[in-house]
Amino acid sequence: MDAPEWTFVSRAPDARLAGLVLNYEGYTISSERHQRRRELPRTTLPLVISFGDAFQLDGQPLAAFTTGIRQNSVVTRWPTRVWGMQVDLSLPGARSLFGMPVSVLTSRIVSLDEVLGPMAGQLAERLPTLPDWSARFALLDEVFLARLDAARSPDPALLRAWRRIHDSGGNVDILGLSTELSYSRQYLSTHFRHTFGVPPKTLARLRRFERAAMLVEHGELTLADVAFRTGYSDQAHFNREFRRLAGCSPREHLRLRRAEPAETARY
User: Into how many domains does the chain fold?
Assistant: First the structure.
């Protein structure tokens, strides 16, 4: 497969968006042929705006979209020329900036119109007309800060639970967490799932996998060491979980990933 030529620019969002909007990325990618890349389950949500041809996600063409939390991989097919932007949102960020429970997006790929309303079309029209990436990033800051001012923050206890799961890499006792928050396990599971899209136990599972997949792709550790560092009981457990969530073994994933476009231009 021919390697695409690409330029890539990133910038941290305005400090007032810290913890909600994680990163801005702008990219231009050219290739002689259509490229495919498998996107693994993640604990963050991408917001993608293509200024040119649409991507295809599992065969569905979309130029401006986001996805909810998934427990399976999805195949993206790139046009031969890609020019656009990606914004990575934390789950609390998606909940606040979309103004809806993230549960409505779970396992779905949706047009930005569904989560941003008329603003989605306005962004898609204005962003490509701006003179450079700095101006585009500034517009995103402006739009997201305005939405944040009007947003309703999630329950502080649920935010605390999300933070513990995230910061621990998924290695947290959910029953102990519910006791710490003075919630029953069922109450925490129900309300956490409504707000963030999946129950705490599922998010912990995905967070652990997300860290493990990153270490596998870096290629500096043995699979046994990856399993140990990310909290799996043993390598066999790790291999089973990886296959369930990625659709292939860690070694097969690494082999396939080496032939796919780079992480710095995910969609």
Answer: 2
pTM of the model: 0.91
Same domain, 17 and 141: yes
Asked if residue 190 and residue 97 are part of one domain, the reply reads: no
Q: Is the same domain home to 88 and 192?
A: no
Measured distance between the N- and C-terminal CA atoms of the chain, rounded to whole angstroms? 17
Per-residue pLDDT of the chain (267 residues; tens, 9 = 90+): 456 677 899 999 999 999 999 999 999 888 778 778 889 999 999 999 999 888 888 778 888 999 999 999 998 888 888 889 999 999 999 999 999 999 999 999 999 999 999 999 999 999 999 999 999 999 999 999 999 998 988 999 999 999 999 999 999 999 999 999 999 999 999 999 999 999 999 999 999 999 999 999 998 899 999 999 999 999 999 999 999 999 999 999 999 888 776 655 454
Cβ atoms of 202 and 70 within 8 Å: the answer is no
**Do residues 14 and 117 both lie within one domain?**
yes
72 part of a folded domain: yes
